């Protein structure tokens, strides 16, 4: 073998042709194939196989496996040095280490995998392109993982505002209990107002869990629970808040619709009936959330954020953050959003139906409309912002927390502030009452002297109109009394 190799080197030494530097590798490859075929022939004969080398047709799997096995055993010293192969078919040979010097390749050393030793060329040496020329460079970019957490001062500030909102809701609860016997509060359904206040507390509390991440909750199991609690708080809070507001407005709509039709039968819708409606909505929420958390539970995941711009090519900055995700997330969210959106649309319908009810203590139609408008505007603004800049954790949390606190506070103010002002001013509603006869006579007596446009012949017509208005006022008073009796 050695003599053949030396003869080959003499034959090709002075040959100048494209790729001449690879001639020796081609020689060693052909020789390795010959050795493998020769070994395969011997193996087939010794193991009594009916196959022969001349039977190979490129589609015989048994013969192919024999070739691969025998190629693994090939080992010889060829024109390019030691030749052998590993289990993946790669050659185990001498490694040549080169370095670029002034635009040209120079051999600086060798690596022998058989003995696991390096041999360095002392004539060239190794020069590294750094300040002193001696520091060993890295062989791959350095990966630096940076976790983006919500800023602690931002989280504390939003929690402070949320806590203030919870305290205000508690104050409204106390206000309803303290003045529950007052006509202003009694007509406004104080127990349903309490449900609204509890819903506001749940919405405020959702801010606390929305700001929790790996910085404050290092346990992955605890973060999984946080993801689930977020959905529960906000879903139940919305149902309690708008459920209380819509059900009591629905009762006013039914009572005054019955009175408007002239029905003599008393409409009796107690608070228990409205609580049952709210409980049914909460049950539906529970079924949806239970199906979601059981089949495809929300879990804490590590999200890869877009890589920030960097100047150092040797460093790769990987930005990550904690988040919540589950299979079919958008399906369940779409179902819940559609369900809640239908509730808001029904609330808008009730607000329109009760817009002409003049009893301020009973009618929250204006505030329902404003609350729905408030929620719609905040969602229309917040959803695109959150989806566009979802890689900026502080900004996203600030938007979600601000909109949640602001929307909840505005709705709570719509429900509580008018009641407080009415109680403070001693008002019981701006509804019409029947005028006593002596008041009618006084009104007619002063009419001629207060307007030069009214003549004596107009007095009978004015009396008739005043009598008609008095009858309408009496009818309205009866409706109010019946409504107050139903609400008591």
- Strand count, sense and closure of the main sheet? 3 strands, antiparallel
Query: Would you tell me the structural class of the helices and strands?
Result: mainly alpha
The succession of helices and strands, N to C, reads HHHEEEEEEHHHHHEEHHHHH
Low-confidence stretches: 428-455
Name the average pLDDT: 77
- Our Rg estimate from Cα atoms comes to 43 Å
Tell me the distance between the termini. Answer: 113 Å
Helix content: 55-70%
Shape type: elongated
Sheet-strand content, in percent, reads 5-15%
Count, helices: 13
What does this structure look like?
By secondary structure, the protein is mainly alpha-helical. The protein has helices spanning 2-12, 23-46, 61-72, 152-178, 183-187, 190-210, 220-260, 271-295, 329-353, 365-388, 393-425, 437-450, 459-487, and strands at residues 75-78, 81-84, 95-101, 104-112, 117-120, 142-147, 299-304, 315-325. The strands form 3 sheets. Strands 3-4-5 form a 3-stranded antiparallel sheet, with no helix packed on it. The longest helix is centred in the middle third of the chain and has 41 residues, at 220-260. It is elongated, with a radius of gyration of 43 Å. The protein starts with a helix and ends with a helix.
